[in-house]
Every structure is written in structure tokens, then in C-alpha cells.
Amino acid sequence: MVCEELFSVRLQQNQENGIETSVTVSYLEIYNESLRDLLDPSRTNLKIYSANNTVSIQNLSMHPVPTFAALLKLFNEGKKIRVVGGHQMNKNSSRSHAVFTIYYREKGVGKTRNCKLNIVDLAGSERQNKTGAEGVRLQ
What percent of the chain has pLDDT over 70? Predict the structure, then answer.
């Protein structure tokens, strides 16, 4: 709902007021201590780095999204390739953590505003002893 309103209200208001606005997204998967770009699956084993009190992922792809529909499409495309595994409690339990990030930027006369919204989905948190999962599936 917030994302829809961002595109339907805020971007339209900014355009009417001559404020340049951009929205980009990234989608990161964390599985077995490895980082993978869910919007460009060829980018695997990404590295975390820190600079100027900011933590970032090296070579994580950023994708401009002009509409809410474009944002939702990228989210769903990335979601399809996440690591999942079935067990007794959930047939499609996520086995990885994922971070979908929306980067919002406004640039007007003498003022720039940068915002970042992280949407985090943690791996399935079912009680391990009730899942019936073993070995690799348990990871």
C-alpha cells in the first residue's frame, strides 16, 4: 500500500512541482553464508563492504522502476528463484533470508532527499523438531 501510494501520489506531485524523482530496487538473497543477486542470478558470492558508516553489497544490481507494476514484477521475479524447501509444516518454506530494497531519490532546487526502505523476509522459522526436516533440507 505504501509503495502504491509512492507511485500514485508522491511521484505525480513531484512532477507537477518540477522535482526530479527516481526509484530503483535491488533484491538480495542470503543462503548458507553466501550472497546472491535475485534480479541478476549470474551475480553470486557477492561481498559485503563498509564505507562512511554505510554497509553495502558490492556489485548488487540496481533496477529503475518507473511504476508500481514494474516494482511488483521485479519483486515477483526474484521471489521465484529464492531457495525454498518443503517439509511437514510448510511445502514452500523459504530456506534463505531475502532483502528487497527500494531506493527513493528526490532532487529539487538546492535540496536532495535520499530514502531507503528495506523489506526483509527471514528464512522459515518453524520449530525444527516439528518440521521433520533433516540434512540439507534442515539448513
Answer: 80
CA 109 from chain centre, in angstroms, equals 30
Residues with Cβ within 8 Å of residue 44, at least 6 apart in sequence: 34, 35, 36, 37
Chain-wide mean pLDDT for the chain?
Answer: 83
pLDDT, tens digit (0-9, with 9 covering 90-100), for 17-62: 899 999 999 999 998 888 999 999 898 889 999 988 888 899 999 9
Long-range residue pairs from 10-15, CB within 8 A, at least 24 positions apart, any chain: 14/106
Give dist(CA 65, CA 6) in Å, integer. 12
Q: Of 91, 66, 87, which Cα lies nearest the Cα of 12?
A: 66
Residue 27 CA to residue 121 CA, distance in Å, equals: 11
Long-range contacts of 101-105 (CB under 8 A, 24+ apart): 101/25, 101/26, 101/27, 101/28, 102/3, 102/23, 102/24, 102/25, 102/71, 103/23, 103/24, 103/25, 103/26, 103/62, 104/6, 104/21, 104/22, 104/23, 105/21, 105/22, 105/23
The pTM assigned to this predicted structure is: 0.79
